[in-house]
Every structure is written in C-alpha cells, then in structure tokens.
Here is the input.
Amino acid sequence: MSSVKGKVGQHELEWLSAPHGKDGASQVKFADGTVWEVRWKKDAEGLWIELPHTVAGFDIGAEAQDEGSLTYRLRRRSSNEAAQGLSFLRAGAGEGVSAAGAKKKGVRVRAQMPGKIVRILVQPGAEVERGQPLLVMEAMKMENEIRASQAGKVVAVKVSEGQAVETGADLMNLE
Amino acid sequence: MSASSKRAPILIANRGEIAIRIARTAKALGFPTVALYSDADRFSEHVKYCDQAYYLGGSAPKDSYLNVEKVIAAAKASGAKYVHPGYGFLSERPHFVDACEKAGLIFVGPTAESMRSMGDKITARNTVQAAEVPGVPGSKGAVKNGAEAAEVAREIGYPILLKATAGGGGKGMRRVDSEAEIESAFEGASREALGAFGDGSMYVEKFILEPHHVEIQVFGDGKGGGVHLGERECSIQRRHQKVWEESPAPILEMYPKTREAMFEAALRVVKQVKYAGAGTLEFIVDGKGNFYFLEMNTRLQVEHPVTEWVTGVDLVAWQILLAAGEWKSPLIPERRGASIEVRVYAEDPQTFLPAPGALNLIRMPQGAFVRADAAFTEQGEVSVHYDPMIAKMSVWAPTRGEAIDRVRVALDETRVEPPKKPDGTQLGSLRTNLSFLRRLSRLPSVREGNTTTDLIARHTELTQDEVSGQCSREAAVALSLYQLLQEHEAVAGGDQPRGASGSPWALLARREGVRL
Here is the structure.
C-alpha cells in the first residue's frame, strides 16, 4: 500500500504504509529522517501503541467542527499530557484548514441539554464580548446563563422566550 | 448469621449511588432491602441491587421519589419496617417523617421536630443561637424585595449574599457587590427558588472573605447525648456545589483551637435539639479562623465516606442500628490520616452546566485505600430528571499529600464514556467533569491547602481549553494513526459485521473492491 504524508501540530510525519485494522503494524518516518516501528491495538477508549523506545495508551475522541471537519481530543493515559483541536492534515490537501477551526466563519450557539428558554438577553445586530451572557436557560431546575464563547456579532436568534429546546438545538448564530 | 432471618425489611426511599450504598450496609447487617423506582429508573443499578423493588410512577420526582403517598404505599406493600431516605428527595421533609410514623414505619433519621427546628435556614439560625453558636450577620428574616435587601446590606456592608430560605445546593443564591446589582439579582434568585422549591422567599447574609466551607459530622442518640466524628472541608465548589471534600480540613490545621471550638459548638446543638442519628453542621470559616454557623443538614451527606475513612465508622450502620434500638453511644471516635472524595458529574468540564445523556462505558478505580460509589456498573443513561452525579470516589492515606497522589492516580484510572459513532465522534449529549477533576488533583494551590471557596474561579487554567497545535511525537503518531484507522474503517465499511458473509477473505475482497 502507498504511503501517507502529513502533519499533526508541529510534527511532519509519513506513514510508510497506510495503517488499517483493529491491530497491526507499520512504520512512521519523521522530517528528520527518524523511522519508528509502530504496533497498535484499538480499544474502547482509543489506542494502545508500541514504539521502539516506549509503549503508551491514548484516550482519543473525535469532535466535529462547525464547518464539518473533524478534530481530535487526546490524552495520554496516566500522564498530564493532553491536547485537543488537532488532526492529521495530509500534505498538499487543505493546508489552510488548520486545526481548531482557525478558518471558522461563525459560531452556532447550541443547547447542551434539554431545557426551556427563560430570557433572551441580546438581539440580532448586537455586538457581544467573549463571556457575555446571551440568554438564560432553565434546565435541571437551574437557571443557566449561556455565554458567548468568543466576541462577535449576533446574526440570528433561533428561539423565543418560553420555548422548550432539545439537546443540540440551535439557539443563536454569532459572526 | 441467625440474626439475618429475624430482621424486618428496610425500604430505601432514594435512587442512584446512595441507594446502593445504603443497601450494601443493610445487607451486611442482615436487613432485607426494598428499592423504589420511577419510569426512568426501571433498569437502574439500585433496583437490581436490592432484594425487592416497587414501581412508583413517572420519571418526574413529584410523581415518584418525592411523592409521599406512593412511597408510603410501597413501604406498606413491601412489608418494610424501616424507611431510609438517603439524601435529597424526602430526606429533610418533616411531613414525610410524620407520614411514616402514622403508617407505623420507623424513619431512619431525626424526629420531625428536630428537622423542623433546623428546616429552613432562619429557624435553624435561631435554634443554634440558643446554643450560643454564632451565625453569619444578616437579615432577621425573609426580605420582600430588592429594596428591603438593600437596606440590610447597607447595615452589614457589601459584598452580601442573597439566599433562598428554602434553598440548598446553590439554587436561588446570588452574590451582590453593590446596590446597583441588587434588584436584578433578587429577581433572578427569587424566580429560581420559586421554580426549584415552590417558595421564592429570600434572605440576606454578609459575604465572608477568604471563606472556607467546613462541616462537623455529628451523631446523636436522640436523648441529648452523642458524638462528633470530626470535620470535613468542602471549600472546593463550582456553582456553589461541592466537587472535592476532605478531612482533616486544611484551614483547621492552621487553627486547631477553632476546630475544638467547632466540635464543642456542634455537640451543644446536638444536646439542644436532642438530635437523633447522623447530621452535619455546616460552617463558614474565614481566613483568620473565625467560624459562623450556616445550616444543619439533618441527614446523611454525599461526602460521608470521607468521615468513614478517617474514623473507621460505617455511618449507615450506625443509622440503621439506632433506628432498630441497638446503637450504644460510643466514645468520640479517634481520627487517623487523611481522606479525600471527588464527585464525578455529567456536566461540561468548562462551564459546569449539566450534560446528561447515554453512558456507554464506566470503569471505576481500584487499588489500596480507594473506594468507589457509582450509580452505574455498565451502560446506562444519566437521566435529565435527577441530579447529574454519576459516581464519587474517595481515598485514604496517612497524610494529605499522599491522599492527593492517590486521588490523582484513581482519577487517571477512571473512565466514563458516551457511545461513539463510527467516525469516533460521540453519540448523545453526555459530558463529564473528569478532565477537570484530573487538573484539580494536579493543581499546586490544592496541594498547598489554599482551598478558599473561590479556588475554581481563581484558577482559570482549570477550565481553559488544552493548548492547541502542540503535542509530543508519540501523541502525533497516536493521533494520525487513530484518524487513519477511523477513515479507513469508514471507507471499507469496517472490520465489524462478522455476520454471515463475514469471512476475513470476503471482507478483504470487499475492502480491496472499494479501493479499486
């Protein structure tokens, strides 16, 4: 099988044969010419890998970004190392679409749980700061302020006061 | 044991981890156990754990666990003699104690009378004042509106706290720093209290600086006698709800005289109200070692394992034996070493908003001096109808520093995962605070014992995104590998369906076919 070349964060790497399967082995080559033999086994939370110098387990989960791409959240088991918003970007393909949604145009504010809209605090056209309350939602008997995750302009309010919403429902669009 | 055949059943009027925890001890003592369940809990662990189970009704608490008539009817139908209320739900409702008595059932807990004397916070403050226990300066009673609250605030000085008289768990509570904020804060808190407790009345309290939340566990014999079982510090809170509880209290290590004074105060209150069973007096201790009474919880607390670790006392066993007339007042238990408990919640680890949903995998920590109390042992659903706590875990060690190390390791072992789609993204809305707790266990301020109640707010690094764009070579290998495997699986239809046509050769052919 053919090799796959790309980048994760600051690391350029090339899989000398495209990996597949729940368990298997392949080789990965870095920009400085180092080649690592890699054996792996997938498990319920991520991956177990064997490298020439160490073995390590990683909990890995994918997260869908608003523009449809996937990034990954990862934690090395029994350690402090954690990262998120990263993905393997193939060489040549979409260099501009960097991780963590750098090209993101807008933000959709969504309901994280089922509940009821108590009050709407901003109207379309309003400029909001990061952390500013956008609306008040009642869920699990608590009033929760939903705040802006970044500064921007309110383009649309998708709900009205008193409305019941389900998890994932669009509440507001920011730009 | 011959005693086991003679014991009368005990009905557990609760759900989740605490129902299981109570049933464990009841079984060990030889009491048959009766569980209750709602629609949402038909297949929950606590139902499977008990000897019998009775259906109450709909998922909403008012149709099931909060419905006195239904709970009493189930108790009678089951032949139970005792009713253990756990925490939350009916555990602090005196009218439920009355109803149990009327039905000839023994309520495992204090009398309705002592519950009433501690029931709402204003009555409680008056009760403890009679025992010469100081409270936090504040309004004499409920305040009607923002203007009245402002009047009190002018007297005692800002910042102040607005609190619901019927409140608990941080619901209906607001900090107010100036008169300008007071009107809207009053409105919001009062509406929240009305929604949560059916009572929107509010009172005012002075906001204590450098506050530590410290509570004293007591156990009374109902005749004025009793013991204390040391303190717990529960200062580390988000949204005014505890996530990390420990004993001994770091702040009291600096002020041992305060500790002794608090123990004495707690025992005076036990005597004053002739308290029966397990109870907790909550205090606020400021940075200089002054302490003020906050409220008394007339029930078992979520964080009681911390006390069980340092004293070796099974508090639920004491509760049940007292109800059965078999408890003998012991000496004040000696306390050894240090214990820490952390609570795993279904919530967003950055905003702490509840995030219940389907749960696909749970793995609790193991090992020496590690205890897990979980509501789940396998797949399940964290229901939107109830408190989103999934599990709690606690550890013991000879010193606090070693206990923190054990918590860190235990948290690294713990897994609570939602189901995943084939592309690796999660299915459903479940999130947990595990990543937050892992960071908390590594925070230098925690290790230093600098545990004021605003610790989480002070340390924004606890709730920030992981730094993006940087990772180790090993992580880069793991991540690219995982992504390529997922993508390959999506294209090839996966290694899975090992069904009728699922010979490895057929799969290989299909995979290659797709590639061509």
